[in-house]
Amino acid sequence: MFGRGLLHCGRTPTTYEKAMFTVASLLVPTDFSDNAGQALSYAKELARATNSTLHLIHIVEPVVYPADWSYAQVGFADIEQELKDASTKEMEELAGKLKAEGFNVVTAVRMGRASDEICAYAKEQKISIISMGTHGRSGLEHFLFGSTTERVLRKAPCPVLAVRYDEDKKS
């Protein structure tokens, strides 16, 4: 490693290569699942190798309710706030564990569509790499639910490491 966050292949890198491979920060979107935990494991290894800051983000998506529920809007804001509060608490616990392991950690909890918020955060914070899990859905399930990872891959302002979930490697 030459300087902060430079990956190399055993030779002195050129100025161009330094600019191309500098890794100062890694973003790990999490929903606190085993899948996200595997993506975090990859990010931790990269962060160790490059002395990078780990950014953790959790997105609370808006609660969707049928328009014909006359009483539906009463209390949905409360549910969203409770979800945000619970997520913030869980993020603080996760960040505490990572800091105890010696990592520099920044956390964020946002509201909105996950792919949009992940990309916006990456751009705002000048993130070097996004490491995120993917469920590997296909066919009808992919058509119905889509893929947050796929949308991030298309829109991200930086490289994205998509980590496919492997049940044999639960974190």
Could you characterize the architecture of this molecule?
With 171 residues, the chain is α/β, with parallel strands linked by helices. The chain has helices spanning 15-21, 34-50, 76-100, 114-124, 139-145, 148-155, and strands at residues 25-29, 53-60, 104-111, 129-134, 160-164. Residues 1-10 have low confidence and may be disordered.
Structural class estimated from helices and strands: alpha/beta
> What does the main sheet amount to?
5 strands, parallel
Helix content: 40-55%
Proportion of residues in extended strands? 15-25%
Count of DSSP E strands?
5
Work out the oligomeric state of the chains in this entry: single chain
User: Radius of gyration from the CA trace?
Assistant: 18 Å
Write the layout of secondary structure elements.
Elements: H1 15-21, E1 25-29, H2 34-50, E2 53-60, H3 76-100, E3 104-111, H4 114-124, E4 129-134, H5 139-145, H6 148-155, E5 160-164
Parallel strand pairs: 1-2, 1-4, 2-3, 4-5
Features:
single chain; 171 residues; alpha/beta; five-stranded parallel beta sheet; 6 helices; globular
What can be said about this structure in brief?
With 171 residues, the protein is of the alpha/beta class.
